[in-house]
Write a structure and sequence with these properties.
Radius of gyration: 12 Å
Number of helices: 2
Number of strands: 4
Distance between the termini: 8 Å
Low-confidence stretches: none
Largest sheet: 4 strands, antiparallel
Strand order of the largest sheet: 2-3-1-4
Shape: globular
């Protein structure tokens, strides 16, 4: 399992403009069995995803919030949790 933590690097109103493609990516992650849980941080500074595997495979696409819009900074942490 790994934890993907996204931290917004721009204001929330700018992030909101990219939320529709990001949420489509999240839904795809659930439908393909990549994600176990996800949600916004409180206060709203980004979001967190619990994902299956030791690290994200290079073949998996990243959230549209990361590369195309530079809206969020990713931090990935591996876990040995079952």
């Amino acid at each position: 399992m790994f934890i993907l933590s996204l931290t917004y690097v721009r204001p929330n109103d700018e992030a909101d403009r990219h939320m529709e493609p990001h949420m489509a990516w999240v839904k795809e992650g659930y439908s393909k069995g990549w994600f176990l849980a996800s949600g916004r941080k409180v206060p709203r500074t980004g979001g967190v995803i619990l994902a299956i595997g030791d690290r994200p495979p290079q073949s998996r696409p990243m959230s549209p919030l990361i590369p195309s819009s530079s809206m969020a900074s990713p931090n990935m942490t591996s876990s040995s949790l079952p």
